[in-house]
Amino acid sequence: MDKKLSKTETIHLRKKHISEACQLFFKEDPLKIVRAERQYMVDEDGNSYLDCINNVCHVGHCHPYVADEACKQIRILNTNNRYLHDNLVLLAKKLTETLPEKLCVVYLVNSGSEANDLAIRLARHYTRGTEMITLDHAYHGHVSSVMDISPYKLNTNVDGSHLKPDFVHVVPCPDSYRGKYRDDKYSPAEIGKKYAEEVKDTISKIHQQGKQLCMYIAESMQSCGGQIIMPEGYLKQVYKYVHDAGGVCIADEVQVGFGRVGSHFWAFQPEGVEPDIVTMGKPMGNGHPVAAVVTTQAISDKFKASGMQYFNTYGGNPVSCAVALAVLHVIEDEKLQEHALRVGNYWINKVKEIMQHFPIIGDVRGRGLFLGIDLVRDRNTREPATQEAQTVVRRMKDEARILISSDGPYNNVLKTKPPMCFSEENVDEFCSKLTEILTDLQKVEIQTVLGDIIDNVEKSTTSARDLNQNWGRTAAVS
């Protein structure tokens, strides 16, 4: 395409041809991004933005090795997986080497939504159960089957066209900070136990209704729910309850896998559990559409025995597999998992230092390059500071060209999950601007409080003066 559109023309054509249901970041003043490299994105005027939110371009935007491997393969062959091809089996081998031994069968698909949809099918065929357990605020994708288990989206539906099915059971999100069981009332172990018992109680109710559990699904760290880290012992207890009831456990690693937590390659691993099915997507292709489901031989055998063949036109094609293999190579070659641990620890410690000076930061949580900053108006009540969070997001973009987002049930959690090449220098830049913005917000709060005090004093003075005048008139009459 020779002609370059102006930003105004792009906006006009988008409004004309693209559904408004497809929302933009910063919709009041959207960015037109024309190129990107590593952890930076560049707009049409050449302005460079620090990307703190793109967990899709996992090893860095437009990584040259990944791009070269994709180009090389697409010039040679791109077809479906019904023909033998080395890339498919080499990718499957590489993925299973990062997982527990029992997870040895790989299905290649195109997106996290497809992966979770297939995981549901596998669970149904294996257990023959009907009932599914999901977390409140969960998001597992945009196709109908996974929308059923995504309260994050279902709860926003206003026309009644897509309601939660009766076979889906929603249990509380195990949020230790502002959930049902909080860290100001219970110890970490007690919190994990109490949230796990919610799952146990739900399973009991399912059995009382004469129904069979099919599956429990959870992101290993919940992203849309507000960057939630699982409480101590929670997943271990939940997995036991689910397995004892004949169900399978699905770990959704679509947002948080591939070394992002730093200490481990997969985010379920720090919890000391072994899922029956793992789904993965976004970072796997560094922006290219490729995803996977990995499961046990037993579950896969039951799926095959159902009589339905599984064929995915683009899943496992040579180009997608070449891209995913390149991503895995870069993670290992550039030691990005170790990098995520070091930079992530540096980041969370820096924000905790800032927290000591600003009461608006109620909680800082995360692992590796997955960080949430929970903004509050009162640390005791933990009232969410939603408006203030939006101010931070907007000013970060407008004044410092730093891109972050907010999320959680109250949209008050500053959310960061940058490309894995994010550096300590980037952290310093982020923290410097955050400190400046929070200082301004604190000044506004102090001025507001002082204004209220002055108003109250003036009202009290006026009341006292009126009282004295009334008393004087009364005395004169007497």
Automatic annotation (TrEMBL):
UniProt entry keywords in alphabetical sequence: Aminotransferase, Pyridoxal phosphate, Transferase
This protein's record includes keyword Transferase: yes
UniProt name for this protein: Alanine--glyoxylate aminotransferase 2-like 1
Pfam entry (one): Aminotran_3
Listed InterPro entries: Aminotrans_3, Aminotrans_3_PPA_site, PyrdxlP-dep_Trfase, PyrdxlP-dep_Trfase_major, PyrdxlP-dep_Trfase_small
Family named by the database record: Belongs to the class-III pyridoxal-phosphate-dependent aminotransferase family.
MF GO annotations: pyridoxal phosphate binding; transaminase activity
One GO cellular component term noted in the UniProt record for this chain: mitochondrion
